[in-house]
Amino acid sequence: MRSAQLWLRGGGVAAFVTALLLTGTAAPDTASAAPTRYEAESATVSQGVVESNHTGYTGTGFVNYDNASGSYLQWTVDAAQAGPANLSLRFANGTTANRPMTITVNGATAATDKAFPGTGAWTSWFTTSVTAALKAGSNTVRATATTANGGPNVDHLTVDTAPAPDGRPPAEINGQLKVCGTKLCNQYGKPVQLRGMSTHGLQWYGQCVTTGSLDALATDWNADVLRISMYIQEDGYETDPRKFTDQVHSVIEQATARGMYAIVDWHMLSPGDPHYNLSRAKTFFTEIAQRHKDKTNLLYEIANEPSGVSWSRIKSYAEQLIPVIRAQDPDTPVLVGTRAWSSLGVSEGGDESEIVNNPVQASNIMYTFHFYAASHGTEYLNTLSRAADRLPLFVTEFGTQTASGDGGNDFGRSQQYLDLMASKKISWVNWNYSDDSRSGAVFNSGTCNSNGPWAGTSSLKPAGVWVRDRIRTPDDFPTG
Fold it and tell me: Nearest 5 degrees, angle CA 259-CA 476-CA 123?
C-alpha cells in the first residue's frame, strides 16, 4: 500500500475561508445540507439604507452602508444544534478601495478586518465567507465596517451548517489520485479539485521555500498542492543536475510531511521543443519516480510550456517519456503540457480539437492549461470550458495579471476562470509563491530574505491576498 505521511492542518472554527465569486447571480447552494439565506434588507441596519438601484441582487434589494466606521448589519440566525457553520456574505463594491469589515457571532470575533475588495462595478456581486461557531438556537451575526469608507453594498447572508472538514490534510483524505474520465479522482473514485501555489524557479527563489513558508502554505493558506518549479535552462537543472535533483527531493519530502500534494514541474520554457531536453527528462524522472514511487501525493508535470512546435511533436515527447516513468512508478498521474505555452494551442491559433483527435497514447494522464487573466480573455476561457468536457485538464499555472506575470490585476476575469474551474472540478495552481518584484509574486519584495512573516496578509501583495483567500476555501473532498 502506498502511503503519504500525515501532518494535521491547523486552524480552529474562527479561521475563515473564502467562497467562490459569483458575478451578477445569486450564490448557488453547494453544500450537502441546504444553506439558509438571510436577506440584508430584513436585517437590523445601523447607518445604512435599503436600496434596489443596482441589478443582480436577490430578494427585494440590498443594503448600502453609510460611509462611516462602525456602520453595521445584524442578523438573527437560528441553528438546530451547536457547531461550526460557513457564513457567506454576498456583496458588491464598485470602488477600487477595500472596505473591510469585522464579522462577529454572538459578540465573538470570527474575522477581523475581513477584506471586501473592489468588484469592478456595483452590479458585480462577490461572495466571501467566514467559518464560525454557532450555538444551538438563536445567534447574532454582525458585519461592522472598520474604516471611514463604510462597508460594501451587502445583498444577503447565507448560513451553511453542513459538517466541517475533518481536519485531516488533503493528501491523507484523498490518498492516491487517478484520472477517471475527464476528472481527477481520489482513492474513493470521487472527482476532486486541488488548489494551491507554485514556487518560482528554485534557482532564483529557493530562499522562499522554507520550513516557515511551507508551514504557512499548509496551515494558514490551507493549500492542497505545491508545484515545485524546477527550470531546466536559465541557470537551472542543466547547470548542476545533482544539486537541483536533490533540491526537488527535499521539497517533495517537505510537502509530503505537511500533507500536501506535490507537482514535480519539469519547467522547460526555452527552447520550446520538449525534445531538446528529452534525455535530461528521462534521467531526472527516472530518479524521482524510483525514489518516491511509494508516495501517494505526487503528480509529474513533464513539460511546462511547449511553444513553437506542433502538437504531434509534443505528443511524441510524452509517449517516449511516460513509459520511462511508468517503469518506476505505475500509479502517479502524469501531466502533459499542451501547445503554445500550454494554452491548448490557442496562443498559436489552435484549439483543443488537435488533442481530442490525436490524444497521447497513455493512461492516467491529464493535459495542462495556463492562463493569465489580464491577457487571456473570452477565447481562452471558452476553450477551457469546451475542452474540460472532452479532456482531463489541470491548470498548473495561472496569474491574475498579464502573461509576463506583471502589471495590473484583473480579479474579475480571474474569478470567471475560478468559477468555471469550480463548476467542472478543474484543479489549479497559482503563479507564484515568492517575493519576485512582479505583481504576480504573492509576497512583498524582501519577505523571503527576511524569513517572513509568512502567515496572514501583512507581507502579501494584492494578488497574494486575493489568491490566499480563495485557496482557503476547502473543496468538499468526498469519501463515500
Answer: 120
CA-wise closest residue to 453 among 462, 444, 440 = 444
Strands 298-301 and 334-336: parallel
> Which residue type is seen at 431?
W
Report how far residue 184's alpha carbon sits from residue 192's, in angstroms, rounded to the nearest whole number: 6
The answer for residues whose C-beta is within 8 angstroms of residue 253's C-beta and 6 or more apart is none
Cα 437 off chain centre by? 21
Query: Which residues, including other chains, have CB under 8 Å from residue 216's CB and lie 6 or more apart?
Result: 452, 454, 455
Cis peptide before 432 (omega within 30 of 0): yes
pLDDT higher than 70, residue 227:
yes
pLDDT at 146 over 50: yes
Place of cell 437590523: 44
Mean pLDDT within 356-385: 97
Q: What is the rounded distance in angstroms from the CA atom of residue 122 to the CA atom of residue 91?
A: 9
Active site residues: 305, 397
| Exposure of 106 in the CB half-sphere (CA atoms within 13 A) | 13
CA nearest to 459, candidates 472, 448, 467, 470: 448
